[in-house]
Amino acid sequence: MKKIVYTLIILFIAQFNFAGEIDSILSKARQLGEAKNYTEAIKVYETYIKNSDNENLKDVIVELANCYYLVGKKDIAVKYIKKAITKYGFIEEDFIYNNYLDENLSKYALSKIYDDLEKLQAEYASR
Predict the structure, then answer these.
(1) Is the pLDDT of residue 2 over 60?
(2) Are 30 and 64 spatial neighbours (Cβ–Cβ below 8 Å)?
(3) 10-44 confidence digits (pLDDT tens)
C-alpha cells in the first residue's frame, strides 16, 4: 500500500513539474516575440504546442501566426489562423477584438479567408 501511495505522490510531483516546465516554455516564446526575435519565438511556440495538452491553444496559435506574419511568411500565418478557427473556435469578432492578433495580420488573414470563414467555423462547430 505504501508503494502505491509513494508512486502516486511521485507522479503528482512529476506532473506538477512538467506543467511548470510547459509554462516556462510559453513564457520564453512570449519573451522572444516581445524582443522581436520572431524566428526563435516560432521554434519555441512550436515546441510548446507540441508538448501541451492541446486545449485552449487559440491565443498561442494566434501568437505563433503573428510571428510567421512578422517574418514575412504570410501563407503560414494564415494557415495558423485557419487552425485557430477550425480547432479552437476563433470567430469573426476575434479578428477585431482579440488582444493577441497583430492588426495587420488580422486584416490580411481576413481578406484571404473571408469567403471560406463560414465553412471553417462550421468545421469547428461540427466537432
Answers:
(1) no
(2) no
(3) 444 444 444 567 889 999 999 999 999 999 999 99
Is the distance from CB of 113 to CB of 81 less than 8 angstroms? yes
Residue where the block lists cell 516581445:
34
CA dihedral 90, 91, 92, 94 (to 10 degrees): -60
Question: Can you tell me the mean pLDDT for 43-67?
Answer: 94
Between CA 74 and CA 78 the distance in angstroms is 6
